[in-house]
Amino acid sequence: MKLGKIQTPDGQTHVAIVSDTGAKLLQMNQSEEVSTLADILNSPNPAQLAESLAESGDEISLEGVRFLAPVDNQETWAAGVTYKRSQVARMEESETGASHYDRVYDADRPELFFKATPNRIVSPGEAVRVRYDSNWSVPEPEFTLVLNPQLKIVGYTIGNDMSARDIEGENPLYLPQAKVYRQCCSLGPVVRLADSELDLKSTTVELIIRRGGESVFKGETDLGQLHRKLDELADWLGREDDFPNGAFLLTGTGIVPDDNFTLEDGDEISISIAGIGSLENSVVKSDRPA
Ligand code: DO4
Ligand code: MG
After folding, report:
1. Which ligand 1 atom sits closest to the C-alpha of 111?
2. Within this chain, do residues 58 and 108 fall inside the same structural domain, yes or no?
């Protein structure tokens, strides 16, 4: 089952069960305890609760429907250097940090970092940002875990961990500035509930970047290449920390464009993950203030 936050053509926002053919709107205001998508995701049985809230509803068409990021009040975190491609790319970009990236790939403890508060996250169709003080920035297409407050994986979505490679490459201590800024992350379009076995190899992740309508970068990987176990990443995130609202955890990128590639204002990013869908965003980069 896929759940989403959608805006219908009349401007109303709804939580919905989303299928290929349409969306079933959920009756959220029946009880104070279930008023958001997060309330459903954090309940003991999200699929059953969603079904019960949709009971009498007909499916509506997806025409004119806008998908919103499926985030309410959760924090968003990210894992890094979880694919060989990411380890190699980071070692190349950083003279001083290479050994850190080299060691963390095989270390017991994964790299986990804070990525975004809800206000820094953009919805599908909105613009992600390249910092004006970065001349080398890329999108990072990442399979993303949806975690409940007990850090149980309850669903999956698509995440874009926008990254300023020149800033993180200059000094690993600049990582928060390379990763956390306004419009630094996109999530969506839906949450696929983790109610069936996930086949890692057939869960492909594809990134396409278009400029002026032409493809300027294309890359693909699959979760079979991920060097960490999904539940192990969730477990490390939960050590000595509390997530009363649940959390999103981006699991790292396995696709990094060649070193001569940087995003430009107006580029279009498309990330597709098998079994979830496609997350599309444009890119905005402001001029450096005078
Ligand atoms: O250490 C830098 C960040 C790594 C990252 O974001 C990734 O591998 O996806
Ligand atoms: Mg990343």
Report:
1. 1
2. no
Instruction: Judge if 233 and 110 occupy the same domain.
Output: yes
Tell me whether residue 290 is in a domain.
Answer: no
Q: Are residues 61 and 79 in the same domain?
A: no
**What string of pLDDT tens digits covers the 290 residues of the chain?**
999 999 999 999 999 999 999 999 999 876 678 999 999 999 999 999 999 999 777 899 999 999 999 999 999 999 999 999 988 998 888 888 888 999 999 999 999 999 999 999 999 999 999 999 999 999 999 999 999 999 999 999 999 999 999 999 999 999 999 999 999 999 999 999 999 999 999 999 999 999 999 999 999 999 999 999 999 999 999 999 999 999 999 999 999 999 999 999 999 999 999 999 999 999 999 999 99
Q: How far is the CA of 259 from the centre of ligand 1 (A)?
A: 15
CATH number of the CATH domain containing 221:
3.90.850.10
Residues in the chain: 290
What atom of ligand 1 comes closest to residue 250's alpha carbon? Answer: 9
Tell me the ligand closest to 113's alpha carbon.
1
Q: Whose CA is nearest to atom 7 of ligand 1?
A: 80
Closest ligand 1 atom number to CA of residue 163: 6
State the distance from the centre of ligand 2 to the C-alpha of 274, rounded, in angstroms: 19
Domain that holds residue 160: 75-285
Q: Is 140 in the pocket of ligand 1 (CB under 6 A)?
A: yes
